[in-house]
Write a structure and sequence with these properties.
Length: about 450
């Protein structure tokens, strides 16, 4: 037997393959891997199962006709032929057509529905709603038999036991699950006592999670009244619920961490707000005292000693009342805050915090009104005193003499022996008339 060349052997093998009907009309299935698209448009890839693998090629015209988005891990069925690539002597499969099977078909349906709903604007960022900072009540749409609910409740209770949870049970897998989830969501979304809604279940295969791609469910979520968090499957799993929801959580546990703030953070925020309010009140009172001091200085420059003394006493009285009222109010408020902090650590933290903020706001308004009223009263008193002084002129207050309750101005108004009462600036003097002289002559 004469030897033949390698090229002759490969040419003969190719000829044999072309004459075999079965090898020219093969329908195979497997999983795609090692995908590469050449500059020519040809797609090179590998198809494999659990025991073997085979190099494949789909020429540009066939690849464009198949309208496939090649992705590693897709399960496909391919129609084509077996051939030998002579330059490398490699056996390969030449694919003419390709279709998705199993999860691959579901993935294709997922992409088609995602594209449709995205074009309708259901996933637009402008439609996203912000999550509440301190929710009082959280609605949960899930199966009561799954681990997802247990994980969420455990984490939420550890972070803030005052948050209430309302569960709307539903199927999360199998036939009719999508419609069941939509009904469970509507029950919660119709309530006014729910602040945010979590849709969740644990991990699973694409078939298990496909109910969360149900078109009716997605359209229902798009018309929501309350913010929605989607926590379906594991971090690598993606459903259309994730796209339409306001926030996506990687796991049910992550969903609890996103929704429920730690009670320590809430307490810290409340204390910070209280300090801000106290500082603002102190500044208002300081400004009121400054204005009162300025009014006192003006009084000292403009009125008599008698009026100054009276006004200073009135100012001191106002100041003492304001200081006493502020200290008393702050002490009462501090005691109330301590009591609130003790109660808020046990139950209903968001409600207590909200009432506390309302009380602080009312307290601030009351202190501002009282400060404003005190200043207005001081201004009014100053105006009255100023009017009196204008009427009196710039003269100092002179001593005045009266007999009993009648003031006298002439020597003819008294008789010898009358008792005179002389009113001075800082008191009065009593005297008796011993003699009377008028125009140099004794009467």
């Amino acid at each position: 037997m004469n030897p033949i060349s390698v090229s002759e052997l490969l040419a003969y093998a190719k000829k044999v393959l072309k004459t075999d009907y079965m090898l020219n009309h093969v329908l195979i299935k497997g999983e795609l891997s090692e995908i590469k698209t050449a500059a020519s448009g040809h797609v090179y890839f590998t198809v494999k199962d659990d025991k073997a693998r085979m190099d494949c090629i789909m020429y540009r015209d066939d690849a464009e006709a198949s309208d496939m988005e090649f992705s590693v891990g897709m399960e496909v069925e391919m129609n084509g032929s077996v051939a030998i690539y002579a330059p490398s002597g490699r056996l390969q499969f030449v694919a003419k057509t390709m279709e998705l099977t199993g999860e691959g078909a579901l993935y294709k349906l997922f992409l088609k529905l995602k594209d449709l709903l995205s074009k309708e604007g259901l996933f637009d960022m402008e439609k996203k709603m912000p999550l509440p900072r301190m929710p009082k009540t959280v609605g949960v749409v899930t199966s009561t038999a799954g681990a997802a609910l247990h994980d969420f409740l455990q984490v939420a209770a550890n972070r803030n036991p005052a948050v209430s949870v309302i569960v709307s049970p539903t199927l999360v897998q199998g036939e009719g699950a999508g419609a069941s989830i939509a009904r469970a969501f509507k029950r919660l979304d119709a309530r006014d006592d729910v602040d945010v809604i979590l849709i969740t279940r644990g991990g699973g295969s694409m078939e298990d999670l496909f109910c969360f791609n149900d078109e009716t469910l997605i359209r229902t979520l798009a018309e929501r009244r309350h913010p929605v968090v989607s926590a379906v499957g594991h971090e690598v799993d993606t459903t259309l619920c994730d796209y339409v929801a306001d926030v996506r959580a990687a796991t049910p546990t992550h969903g609890a961490e996103i929704i429920v703030s730690p009670r320590e953070d809430i307490l810290s925020a409340s204390r910070a707000r209280l300090r801000t309010m106290e500082h603002a009140i102190a500044l208002n009172l300081q400004e009121a005292r400054r204005r009162n001091d300025a009014l006192g200085h003006r009084l000292h420059q403009a009125v008599s000693m008698e009026a100054i003394l009276n006004k200073r006493l009135a100012q001191n009285a106002v100041k003492e009342r304001m200081d006493f009222r502020m200290k008393e109010t702050l002490n009462l408020h501090a005691q109330s805050l301590k009591s609130d902090v003790i109660r808020i650590k046990a139950v209903n933290l968001p409600a207590r915090a909200e009432r506390e903020m309302e009380q602080l706001a009312a307290f601030k308004m009351r202190m501002v009104r009282e400060s404003s009223l005190a200043v207005k009263n001081a201004q009014r008193d100053l105006a009255e005193l100023d009017n009196r002084m204008k009427a009196m002129g710039k003269e100092r207050v002179k001593p005045r003499v009266r007999v009993r309750d009648r003031y006298i101005r002439s020597a003819t108004d008294v008789d010898v022996g009358d008792v005179l009462n002389i009113d001075l600036i800082d008191g009065s003097v009593e005297a008796r008339v011993l003699s009377i002289e008028r125009n140099g002559h004794e009467l």
